[in-house]
Amino acid sequence: MILAATTFAFICFAAAILMNLWKVVTAGDVADRILALDTMFINAIALMILYGMSQGSEIFFEAAMIIAMLGFVSTVAYARFILRGNIIE
Amino acid sequence: MRILRRLVPHPILTVLLTLSWLFLAASWTLNSLLFGLGLGLIIPFVTQPYWPNRPRLRKPLMIAEYLAVVLWDIVIANVIVARIVLFKRNADRQPNWVTVPLDLKSPEAITMLAGTITMTPGTLTADVSSEGHALLVHCLDAPDPEAVRDEIKNSYERRLKEIFE
Amino acid sequence: MQTLAELLITVFLVTAGIFGIVGSFGLIKLNDAMSRLHAPTKATTLGVGGVLLASMLHAIAFESHLSLHELMITLFLFLTAPITAHFIAKVHIHRRESKDSLPESCGDSCWATHDLPDDGDQ
Fold it and tell me: Within an 8 Å CB–CB cutoff, is residue B101 touching chain C?
């Protein structure tokens, strides 16, 4: 039962990442593109934790943590660059 | 007492940092406890100039009630928003800007309120007014902006006001 | 006990998957930029939250140890998601909205994104 549910969640999040990729490519505006990339980061975290769970390995949680931090910092840096023209004043 | 205050400027932050180190290291030994405590003492001391004021909590126990209310609202609102996304045509949806005037004064409380509004799906804090007296909230589907504003003020801001002021 | 845990994990995983995909679907379907911003906050809260809860339950029930990494990730996401959403909203306001297209700001002169310093050097 868990195997089936994990497979279902894998498919859902993989499809979600593909949709985000489609949005990154076709977005008309910079704000949309940042948003799609941010959502991709979030879905990647979910995928990584799912994989860690299905493999029974702890190491993927640390990877997910790092992805979460990278996603946050890069999104803020990108938005900041659009807003102010530089990142660190 | 004053020396202790200078050395440990934010006791709650110290406890939080120690706990998060323990959770991250995932080992419950004296070794990691001491290292976490060291980090918890050094980091607030070094970054002291960035937070000169200690935010005061009037009723810390109210935070538990607040968190419970917010988590429940997140679950409910998620279902509502999923329904809107899946079954409502774009033409029928009425996205709207709502201005929420603030009674809260302290920056920490306003930040908490803004974060809460964003985390409950369906509403999203977009901006704060230049002198900090109002929040600009975007609603995904709000035929009646006044109702949204009243709900935010009644359920979240009232509780935050009791906690912080 | 094992069956109950299995059932709970399954429920969490399925809800998480559904909300994750609905969030990303909203990103494509919704037609105005500010509404699209609502999608990732949803994917974070119930999507990733559900997966993390399932993973914690799995660790407790089948590997018999308490795993707190998931709790830290959830906490981190819940703290950072409003901040990124706020930044993206500010980008949108900066590029697409003017002082007149937004509602009045309750007595203050304008919204903070439009409150630029006067010397043109930003």
Answer: yes
